[in-house]
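Assess the record.
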Amino acid sequence: VTGEEAQRFLNLCAAQGISMWNISTVEQGFTCSMPIKDFFRIRTIRRKTRTRVTILYRYGLPFFIERGGRRPVFFLALVCSLVFIWLLTCFVWEIRVTGNVIHSSDEFLQFLSNMNVQYGMRCSRVDCGEIESAIRLKYDDVLWVSASLSGTGLTIEIKENTESYGGPYPETAPGNLVSDKAGVVSRIIVDQGTAAVKPGDTVEAGQVLIEGFEERLDDGGTVTGYTRCRGMGSVVLSTRYDYDQDLLYDHTEKVYTNRSHSRWTFWVFGRELSLPGLPCSFADADVETREGTVSIGSDFFLPVKYKVETCREYTEQQLSYTPREAEQILQKELDGFTANLIEKGVEIMENSVRINMYESHARARGTIACEEPAGTYGTYTEEQETMLHTPEGTQAPPEESQ
């Protein structure tokens, strides 16, 4: 906007509620931006102020389409790209399984593939409820499962019963509670079944702690039979861990150089495409592999997977720890060992590990006394099966005939 009354033009526009932004002064006027609907309202103001209005640039979709009409190839390519991206959003390009410990991700993916839930399927055909029901029906040790479709990614969240893992047995199956480690019984509380040990007894791994049956007594207190159940309760063992770690002062360490080779492999719509790369010709090298799926944001995955294999050269150097450094390293390892025990529910009663320094090495040696829970599911022994007499375990062995 230029003219002697450019300032008056600006004031009249403000008085009539005409939107203007990005205002900057120029010689004999100013420049600004305004919506197209308000542009047609300034004709009267322009005549009153005898100013000159020049359009410098047009923004917006209508003007973009108009300019695209002058470049039909560019406009057609843009439309085709948008349509292609929209088509990509209609398919599943990533299936992730998280939270699984007992069963591998490949096992779950194979199970889903048998259900025709696989890479490249239409999003409209994904039934999350059906997937959840099928997994719960197939895997007895899966406590909780959630399937969710977000963008072009299908996520399966799994929570497994890792505490009872040890065999394909239902949680309600009758059986014994057996020790999974050696130690001395410190405390035992029976919730269901019959105690087979008492405090102070020494037990070995695999020994029965709580037998999976209960006696049935008559009014006179005589055993008339046995009822099968699952041996359940709380058993705490006193255990000891012998700890012995050596660390030489003189040692060899890897020192990486700046030389490396990378080899890229792509999978586009499931088809492999390997790019040429130099072979790993280094005498000493480590190979690192990184895999992933190309995505835009966190949920819009593309049908492009990649794998990068990087070969990094290193040299071996002879170094030496000071006694103080060796002591700190051994102490850190010991702290990590005890922290791992505590995470497993182990209570450390006494730690007699000591770190001693010698001429050529340092040594951490001693015993860690602990109390820790013990017990896992175990089937009946042959003697118990004979005693229980029937597979159901609902009656006692018959008495000998007189």
In short: The chain has nine helices and 21 strands.
